Amino acid sequence: MKLFYGTALPNPLMLGTAQYPSPAILEQAFRTSGAGVATVSLRREGAEGAGAAFWKMIQDLGVLVLPNTAGCHTVKEAVTTAHMAREVFGTRWIKLELIGHTDSLQPDVFQLVEAAKILTDDGFQVFPYTTDDLIVAERLLAAGCEVLMPWGAPIGSGRGLSNTYALRAMRAEFPEVPLVIDAGIGLPSHAAQAMELGYDAVLLNTAVARAGDPVAMARAMMRAIEAGRLAYQADPIEARDMAEASTPVIGKAFLS
Amino acid sequence: MKIVINGEPREVTATTLAGLLEERGLPGRVATAVNEGFVPATLRASHVLRDGDRVEILAPMQGG
């Protein structure tokens, strides 16, 4: 498995921590699936100290932590949030989200490249949430990013991979770069498909957290991801339009 | 002195950012910004607050 800024992931499942029915179910989803990376965020702290309790649970899980800049719409906002996250979470990793469109939450790739450059120059290890555009990907790599996280479909939509052609092209164009499908996964089959395309990891949240049984769905996702990765490594056959008999013709009895 | 903490107007007696966190009972694992600019933990004690400042105090939360 490729290294993510020099770090080997325990497995290819990056799991979000938002929207679970309870902290206990969130914890169980991680423990049962074995997801090795948790995405986290920063929000205003109330007097009740909810942040401390949440952080203790994440630490107890022993997973790698990937803080995000979710909800940021400007370079300045994202850069400031990244600095705050680095201090609180004690990691140089940052999932850089710069939202450009309210309904689709499509990344603003122009600001994304700009912020990625600023943060990389400042010592951050940037995981950019981007589109499947190859030129943007090139610009992000030129800005210093060593990982790319193209969307599969809009965040929380559960639609699966909208453009497998573009995602396949990105894999082919950047064979050495760790690539993560981030967002849009709804079903284990979508996650398996991402891995079958040769992606190095899958980042998902809503598909697990909002499932009727998040713990079972987290397990299902991990199994699908493992299956998809094995399949990619096993070098699948090419699809074809017409049948090709699998049972040998030679030696068939003459009975008609 | 009146300042805005996490979007809420508050009357405070603390004069520095570090003092404010103590006064509000939030000395734990938080990150701070004043007037949209990040203030690292190491600079909180020397960061003097002014009337009308907008302070953000952020903590670890769930995220995707």
Automatic annotation (TrEMBL), chain A:
**Cross-referenced HAMAP family, in alphabetical order?**
ThiG
Q: Which organism is it from?
A: Alloyangia pacifica
- Catalytic activity entry: [ThiS sulfur-carrier protein]-C-terminal-Gly-aminoethanethioate + 2-iminoacetate + 1-deoxy-D-xylulose 5-phosphate = [ThiS sulfur-carrier protein]-C-terminal Gly-Gly + 2-[(2R,5Z)-2-carboxy-4-methylthiazol-5(2H)-ylidene]ethyl phosphate + 2 H2O + H(+)
Pathway assigned in UniProt: Cofactor biosynthesis; thiamine diphosphate biosynthesis
Provide the protein name. Answer: Thiazole synthase
GO biological process terms on file: thiamine diphosphate biosynthetic process
Q: Where in the cell is it found?
A: Cytoplasm
Q: Which CDD domains match?
A: ThiG
The primary location reported for this protein is cytoplasm
Domain (Thiazole synthase ThiG): give its ranges: 5-248
Q: Which family does it belong to?
A: Belongs to the ThiG family.
Gene label:
thiG
Q: Which UniProt keywords apply?
A: Cytoplasm, Schiff base, Thiamine biosynthesis, Transferase
The enzyme's E.C. designation:
2.8.1.10
Show the taxonomic lineage: Bacteria, Pseudomonadati, Pseudomonadota, Alphaproteobacteria, Rhodobacterales
From TrEMBL, chain B:
Report what the protein is called: Sulfur carrier protein
> What species is this protein from?
Alloyangia pacifica
Task: Name the source's superkingdom.
Answer: Bacteria
Q: Which SUPFAM superfamilies match?
A: MoaD/ThiS
Coiled-coil zones: none
